[in-house]
Amino acid sequence: MTEMVYGTIPVRETEPVLPKWWRTIDKWSMSCILILFGIGILLGLAASPPLAEKNGFSPFHYVERQALFGTLALSAMLLTSMMNPHLVRRLAVLGFLVAFVALCLLPFFGTDFGKGAVRWFSLGFASVQPSEFLKPGFVVVAAWMMAASQDINGPPGLTWSFCLALVIVTLLAMQPDFGQACLVLFGWGVMYFVAGAPILLLLGMAGCAVLAGSFAYSNSEHFARRIDGFLSPDVDPNTQLGFATNAIREGGFFGVGVGEGEVKWSLPDAHTDFIIAVAAEEYGLVLVLCIIALYGIIVVRSLLRLVRERDPFIRLAGTGLVVMFGVQAMINMGVAVRLLPAKGMTLPFVSYGGSSLIAGGIAIGMLFAFTRTRAQGEIGDILRGRGR
């Protein structure tokens, strides 16, 4: 009878943590994440040896580091997914404050590693990219503000979250990192839409974003160079986009064979930003479609669970996290096939990168914590006047 009323299996308060976690977690999405990480290791075995040889390391130096970072990321994901939403919110706010301060300090203590954008802190043995850790924290903080604004006599959370988003976007654009800036702004816009923003306001914001892009094109050589390269009808075969495009073309449906690809010897970012080109060349369209399907399953299943969520904070935070996750994957693959300008953005859980992997593990752990099955009436019950 309880299941008929509330639509979910009630959770017994005396139930141990691990059995309770296992019974309420989205096992399909978690399996997809583990498969994506496994694919990342597989592609790393193919893509990273040329770079390791060039830098004087052992052939599988970057694969070993990816396995280490991945282990930390998956551990963070599992630990975070076991937390309740209130604890996740507290830790996310604290993490956001630390990442925000680090982002503000980048212009003074950061480095660009010769890539023309100051995005990292060099620690000697590793590097840290604050923007990767800022994104999940910002989503949770913005969702908290938006949810609070829905309370009677609540604070102007929508305005606060918008101002916070603008500050973060400005800091990211100063690096410059227009890809992450667009991702943050898009994630906030989706949460704002779910919170009930009028469509005309969102269209107006989109227009302002176009104007900001035009301004950046006129005043940033880094930004203009990437846009010009994207709009050019001819692709220079000696550029990263040229190498990636040729690799995808050569791969065909089934690929040229494991270890037979050539693009990894030409692309300096074959193991990071253009890992999908290595997958397309050596394993063909089949593996690329599998990767797209894995991301699609995670996004769709998470959104379906969030649609049934009554708590506005959980619904907004979960939506922001899964949208950023899916859009980042789409941007990375879109750049490789020249559907989007070059952004310098990793493919979640597949590309090499310590900050990307660990921050991604924390973000997905938050998402799993928000989408776990809980004893509650569903959102449809409220609309029908049957909520508790």
From TrEMBL:
List the membrane topology term(s): Multi-pass membrane protein
Q: What class of enzyme is it?
A: transferase
EC numbers, comma separated? 2.4.99.28
Q: What UniProt keywords apply to this chain's record, in alphabetical order?
A: Cell cycle, Cell division, Cell membrane, Cell shape, Cell wall biogenesis/degradation, Glycosyltransferase, Membrane, Peptidoglycan synthesis, Transferase, Transmembrane, Transmembrane helix
Q: Which segments cross the bilayer?
A: 28-47, 67-84, 91-110, 157-174, 181-212, 283-304, 316-337, 349-370
In Gene Ontology terms, what is one molecular function of this protein? lipid-linked peptidoglycan transporter activity
**Entry annotated with the keyword Cell wall biogenesis/degradation:** yes
Q: Which GO terms describe its cellular component?
A: cell division site; plasma membrane
* Reaction catalysis annotation: [GlcNAc-(1->4)-Mur2Ac(oyl-L-Ala-gamma-D-Glu-L-Lys-D-Ala-D-Ala)](n)-di-trans,octa-cis-undecaprenyl diphosphate + beta-D-GlcNAc-(1->4)-Mur2Ac(oyl-L-Ala-gamma-D-Glu-L-Lys-D-Ala-D-Ala)-di-trans,octa-cis-undecaprenyl diphosphate = [GlcNAc-(1->4)-Mur2Ac(oyl-L-Ala-gamma-D-Glu-L-Lys-D-Ala-D-Ala)](n+1)-di-trans,octa-cis-undecaprenyl diphosphate + di-trans,octa-cis-undecaprenyl diphosphate + H(+)
Q: Which GO terms describe its biological process?
A: cell division; cell wall organization; peptidoglycan biosynthetic process; regulation of cell shape
Asked whether the UniProt record includes Ribonucleoprotein among its keywords, one would answer: no
The compartments listed are: Cell membrane
Please state the pathway this protein functions in, per its UniProt record. Answer: Cell wall biogenesis; peptidoglycan biosynthesis
Broad class of where this protein is predominantly found:
membrane
Q: Which Pfam families match?
A: FTSW_RODA_SPOVE
**What's the superkingdom here?**
Bacteria
Please report which protein family the annotation says this sequence is part of: Belongs to the SEDS family. FtsW subfamily.
* PANTHER family assigned: CELL CYCLE PROTEIN (PTHR30474), PEPTIDOGLYCAN GLYCOSYLTRANSFERASE FTSW-RELATED (PTHR30474:SF2)
The protein here is known as Probable peptidoglycan glycosyltransferase FtsW
